[in-house]
C-alpha cells in the first residue's frame, strides 16, 4: 500500500462536505472509513460496481437448475419408483428442494462474492498500523487519500470539521 | 416525546458503542448470569442424557404408538422451527420496509432463529429411529445405488431446514461483521482481540466495504422473506400431504406461516424484556418497541382465530363425518383442556393488546407473550396428536400420552436454548451497533 493521509472527522456531515470539496478540487483515489454506512458518500466517492447481486442470481439459478435436474434424473431414469401410480416426473413435488437450494446457492455465492469484492479476509493492513484508526469502528470518520498528489497540509487543515491528519502506510 | 416513547436512543454514537460492547468486554458476569448458566447447563445435560438413552433404546421410550406415530418429537420440532422462522422473517421484513425500530431487536431475533432452528432440526433426525443414518436423506453417490424419495415431505424438510439454517447463519454473520470489528478495536485482552479480529475478517469500514455489504445484505433480506415462508409452508405440507382427516387441508401452509410469525414475535417479547434488564438498556429497547410488537401480536392473534374458525367452518361445510369428528374431539374429547388452553393463549388473552397500557406494561405484555408461546405449543399438540388417533379407520383409533423421556427431552431443549442465549449475551453484541448508530445519525441530520 502506498502512503495515505487519513483526515479525521467527528461527524458525518463534515466528512461528506470534505469529500465533495476535495473531489471538486480534482483529488482522485479517495476512500473513507466509517463506523456505519454513510449513504451520501457513495455518489461522491463512486466506488466501482461490485457485481455481487449478479453473482447471486447466477449461483442461485445454477443451484436450482442443478437440483431440479438431479431430481428429474434420479426419479425418472436412475431409480424409477411407482408410488400409487403418480407420474415419475412429479415436477410439483420437486419444487421444494429446487427453491430452497436455489436460495441457498444465491446466498452462498453472494457471500463469497461479497468477501472477495471487499478484499477480505485481510487481517493485516497498513490501516491498522496506528491505534488512531480504532475510532473508525466507533465514532470517528476517516477520509483517506493518497499522499501523492494530495493538497498540502495547510489547505487540508482548512477543511471544516477536520480534527486531525494521520499518515499510514509509509 | 419521553425517553420511553422514543424508538431510537438519544445518545452519542460513542455512548451507544459502550452500552452494547462493555457488557461483553468490560463488565464481569453477575451472580444472576452464573445462576442461569448453571440451571441451563443442568437442563442441557438432561437433553444429552435423553438423546443418549433414545439412541441406545430406540423410540419406544417415547409415548408414540402405531396410531400416534409423531408425538412430542414432531410437536416440538414444529414449535421450535416456528420460533426459529420468526427471527429472520422479522429482521428481513422490517429491513425491507425500512422500520427504524428494527435495529434494537434484529440481532438477538436472528440469534433466536439460529438457536431454535438448530434445536428443531434435532427432533426429526432423532425421530427417524436410527438417527445415525440420517445422511441417507442427502443425495450422494453411494454403493447401495439409492437416492432420496423426492416426493417425501421428510426430504422436503431436510432441504428446507438445512437451507434455512445455513442461510440464517450467513445473514446473521454478515450483519455482525462490522460489530465484530468494533469489538476487535475496543477489546484489550489479547485473546478477545484475536477472536474478534478473525471474526471481523479485517473489516475496515471503507466506503467500498459498505457499498458491497449493503448490496449483499439487502439482497439477502429480499430472499429471506420468501425463504421463511417456503420453509414453514413445507412444515405445513408435512401435515397437509398426509391423508388423515384434520391434516389434509390446503389452509395449512399459510396458517403455519402466520403461526410461526406469531409465536416468534411472542418469544421476541420475552427475550427483549430479559435483554433490557440484563444489559440495562431501557433507552434502546423502549416501551414503544413493546407497544409496536404488541400490535403485531394482536394482528397475528386475529389471523390465528380466523384460521381456527375456518377449520371449524370447513369441517361443517364439507359434510365429511371424519373431519367433523376431529373438530368435535378437539373441542370436547379427551384433549379438550389442551384445545381450550390453545384458544385461551392464542385467541383470548392477546385481546388485552387492544389496550395500549397492556402493550407497554412489561408485567402484562410478557405474561401474555408467554401464554401465546404455550398456546402455540398446545396447538401443535392437538394438531399432531388428534388426527392420526381419530382417523378413517376406527380400528386404528388410539390415544397418546407422553412419557418421562418425552418431557425430559423437551425440557432439555428449552435449557439448551437458554444456555445458548446466556452465552450469547456475554460473547456477541446483542444489538446491531452500526445499524443503530446509522439510524441515530440519520435522525440527527434530518
Automatic annotation (TrEMBL), chain A:
Keywords: Membrane, Transmembrane, Transmembrane helix. Pfam families: ActD (PF11821). InterPro entries: ActD. The chain crosses the membrane at residues 57-79, 91-115. Signal peptide: none annotated. The keyword Membrane applies. It comes from the Bacteria. This is DUF3341 domain-containing protein.
From TrEMBL, chain B:
The keyword Transmembrane helix applies. It is a multi-pass membrane protein. This is Fe-S-cluster-containing hydrogenase. Pfam families: NrfD. It comes from Roseivivax isoporae LMG 25204. The chain crosses the membrane at residues 32-65, 77-96, 108-134, 154-174, 216-235, 255-275, 296-317, 337-355, 362-387, 407-428. One of its GO terms (cellular component) is plasma membrane. Keywords: Cell membrane, Membrane, Transmembrane, Transmembrane helix. Belongs to the NrfD family. It is found in: Cell membrane. Its main location: membrane.
Amino acid at each position: 500500500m502506498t502512503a495515505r493521509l487519513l483526515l479525521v472527522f467527528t461527524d458525518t456531515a463534515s466528512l461528506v462536505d470534505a469529500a465533495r470539496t476535495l473531489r471538486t478540487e480534482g483529488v482522485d483515489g479517495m476512500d473513507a472509513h466509517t463506523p456505519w454506512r454513510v449513504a451520501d458518500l457513495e455518489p461522491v466517492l463512486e466506488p466501482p460496481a461490485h457485481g455481487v447481486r449478479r453473482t447471486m442470481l447466477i449461483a442461485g439459478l445454477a443451484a436450482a437448475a442443478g437440483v431440479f435436474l438431479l431430481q428429474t434424473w434420479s426419479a425418472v431414469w436412475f431409480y424409477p419408483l411407482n408410488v400409487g401410480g403418480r407420474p415419475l416426473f412429479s415436477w410439483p413435488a420437486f419444487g421444494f428442494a429446487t427453491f430452497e437450494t436455489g436460495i441457498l446457492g444465491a446466498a452462498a455465492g453472494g457471500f463469497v462474492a461479497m468477501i472477495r469484492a471487499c478484499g477480505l479476509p485481510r487481517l493485516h493492513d497498513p490501516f491498522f498500523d496506528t491505534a488512531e484508526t480504532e475510532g473508525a469502528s466507533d465514532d470517528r470518520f476517516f477520509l483517506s487519500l493518497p499522499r501523492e498528489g494530495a493538497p498540502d497540509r495547510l489547505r487540508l487543515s482548512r477543511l471544516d470539521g477536520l480534527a486531525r491528519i494521520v499518515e499510514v502506510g509509509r | 416525546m419521553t425517553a420511553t416513547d422514543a424508538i431510537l436512543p438519544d445518545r452519542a454514537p460513542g455512548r451507544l458503542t459502550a452500552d452494547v460492547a462493555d457488557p461483553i468486554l468490560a463488565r464481569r458476569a453477575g451472580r444472576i448470569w452464573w445462576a442461569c448458566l448453571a440451571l441451563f447447563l443442568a437442563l442441557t445435560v438432561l437433553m444429552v442424557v435423553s438423546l443418549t438413552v433414545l439412541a441406545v433404546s430406540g423410540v419406544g421410550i417415547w409415548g408414540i404408538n402405531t396410531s400416534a406415530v409423531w408425538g412430542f418429537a414432531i410437536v416440538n420440532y414444529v414449535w421450535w422451527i416456528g420460533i426459529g422462522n420468526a427471527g429472520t422473517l422479522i429482521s428481513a421484513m422490517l429491513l425491507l420496509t425500512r422500520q427504524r425500530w428494527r435495529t434494537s431487536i434484529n440481532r438477538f431475533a436472528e440469534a433466536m432463529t439460529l438457536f431454535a432452528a438448530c434445536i428443531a432440526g434435532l427432533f426429526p433426525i432423532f425421530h427417524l429411529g436410527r438417527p445415525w443414518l440420517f445422511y441417507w436423506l442427502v443425495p450422494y453417490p453411494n454403493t447401495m445405488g439409492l437416492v432420496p424419495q423426492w416426493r417425501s415431505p421428510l426430504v422436503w424438510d431436510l432441504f428446507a431446514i438445512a437451507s434455512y439454517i445455513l442461510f440464517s447463519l450467513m445473514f446473521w454473520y454478515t450483519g455482525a461483521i462490522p460489530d465484530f470489528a468494533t469489538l476487535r478495536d475496543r477489546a484489550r485482552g489479547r485473546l478477545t482481540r484475536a477472536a474478534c479480529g478473525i471474526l471481523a475478517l479485517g473489516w475496515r469500514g471503507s466506503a467500498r466495504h459498505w457499498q458491497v455489504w449493503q448490496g449483499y445484505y439487502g439482497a439477502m433480506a429480499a430472499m429471506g422473506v420468501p425463504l421463511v415462508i417456503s420453509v414453514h409452508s413445507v412444515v405445513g405440507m408435512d401435515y397437509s400431504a398426509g391423508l388423515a382427516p384434520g391434516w389434509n387441508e390446503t389452509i395449512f401452509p399459510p396458517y403455519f406461516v402466520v403461526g410461526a410469525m406469531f409465536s416468534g414475535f411472542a418469544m421476541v417479547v420475552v427475550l427483549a424484556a430479559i435483554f433490557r434488564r440484563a444489559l440495562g438498556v431501557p433507552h434502546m429497547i423502549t416501551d414503544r418497541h413493546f407497544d409496536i410488537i404488541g400490535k403485531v401480536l394482536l394482528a397475528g392473534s386475529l389471523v390465528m382465530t380466523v384460521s381456527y374458525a375456518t377449520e371449524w367452518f370447513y369441517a361443517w361445510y364439507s359434510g365429511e363425518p371424519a373431519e367433523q369428528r376431529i373438530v368435535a374431539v378437539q373441542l370436547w374429547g379427551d384433549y379438550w383442556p389442551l384445545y381450550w388452553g390453545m384458544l385461551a393463549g392464542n385467541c383470548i388473552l392477546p385481546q388485552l393488546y387492544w389496550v395500549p397500557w397492556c402493550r407497554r406494561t412489561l408485567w402484562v405484555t410478557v405474561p401474555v407473550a408467554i401464554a401465546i408461546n404455550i398456546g402455540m405449543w398446545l396447538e401443535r399438540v392437538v394438531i399432531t396428536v388428534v388426527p392420526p388417533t381419530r382417523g378413517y379407520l376406527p380400528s386404528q383409533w388410539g390415544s397418546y400420552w407422553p412419557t418421562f423421556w418425552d418431557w425430559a427431552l423437551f425440557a432439555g431443549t428449552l435449557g439448551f436454548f437458554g444456555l445458548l442465549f446466556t452465552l450469547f449475551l456475554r460473547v456477541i453484541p446483542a444489538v446491531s451497533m452500526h445499524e443503530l448508530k446509522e439510524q441515530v445519525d440519520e435522525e440527527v441530520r434530518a
